[in-house]
């Protein structure tokens, strides 16, 4: 798991950039910080963690690999998320979590119907991201892949008077 580092003082707060934080101050001098954290080797954005594979596989194998990390092939919900993923992937083509059965509508791996906020090029059954756009092809083509999952939540409490801190993982 990831440990989200932090230092707190009267004027400073330093935290791991993978862990955007939410801080609550209580009248009794306890500072509680909840941070969204990603595992080592994953990149965080918008409350999600992303893994960009170094291996290749067909669409089904790629989804199985993501499942082994309690994740799925990436579901891309906004233009901002798409821009983030394009900035972080290399020049290779990467499978994402969009698929359709022959003659059916596009669906994300969680079963949600795709709302067509971006165009999927070509007439394939599995979608991948290249340098320019989202394109589709036969699902048995071998490509890299991108996994996504919700970021874990870590809760920290600090006693303001004594400067002692406790950390507990809520989920990973």
UniProtKB/TrEMBL annotation:
<dbReference type="InterPro" id="IPR050828">
    <property type="entry name" value="C-type_lectin/matrix_domain"/>
</dbReference>
<keyword id="KW-0430">Lectin</keyword>
<dbReference type="InterPro" id="IPR033992">
    <property type="entry name" value="NKR-like_CTLD"/>
</dbReference>
<dbReference type="InterPro" id="IPR016187">
    <property type="entry name" value="CTDL_fold"/>
</dbReference>
<dbReference type="InterPro" id="IPR001304">
    <property type="entry name" value="C-type_lectin-like"/>
</dbReference>
<dbReference type="InterPro" id="IPR016186">
    <property type="entry name" value="C-type_lectin-like/link_sf"/>
</dbReference>
<protein>
    <recommendedName>
        <fullName>C-type lectin domain-containing protein</fullName>
    </recommendedName>
</protein>
<feature type="domain" description="C-type lectin">
    <location>
        <begin position="45"/>
        <end position="148"/>
    </location>
</feature>
<dbReference type="Pfam" id="PF00059">
    <property type="entry name" value="Lectin_C"/>
</dbReference>
<dbReference type="GO" id="GO:0005886">
    <property type="term" value="C:plasma membrane"/>
</dbReference>
<dbReference type="GO" id="GO:0030246">
    <property type="term" value="F:carbohydrate binding"/>
</dbReference>
């Amino acid at each position: 798991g990831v440990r989200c580092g932090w230092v707190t003082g009267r004027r400073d707060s330093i935290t791991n950039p993978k862990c955007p934080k939410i801080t609550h101050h209580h009248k009794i001098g306890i500072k509680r910080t909840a941070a969204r954290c990603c595992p080592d080797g994953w990149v965080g954005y918008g409350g999600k963690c992303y893994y960009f594979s170094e291996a290749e596989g067909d669409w089904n194998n790629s989804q199985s690999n993501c499942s082994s990390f309690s994740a799925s092939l990436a579901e891309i919900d906004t233009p901002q998320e798409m821009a983030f993923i394009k900035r972080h992937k290399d020049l290779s083509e990467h499978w994402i979590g969009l698929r359709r059965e022959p003659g059916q509508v596009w669906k994300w791996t969680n079963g949600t119907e795709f709302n067509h906020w971006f165009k999927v090029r070509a007439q394939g059954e599995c979608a991948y991201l290249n340098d320019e756009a989202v394109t589709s092809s036969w699902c048995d083509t071998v490509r890299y892949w991108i996994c996504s999952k919700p970021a874990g939540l870590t809760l920290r409490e600090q006693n303001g008077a004594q400067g002692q801190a406790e950390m507990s993982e809520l989920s990973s």
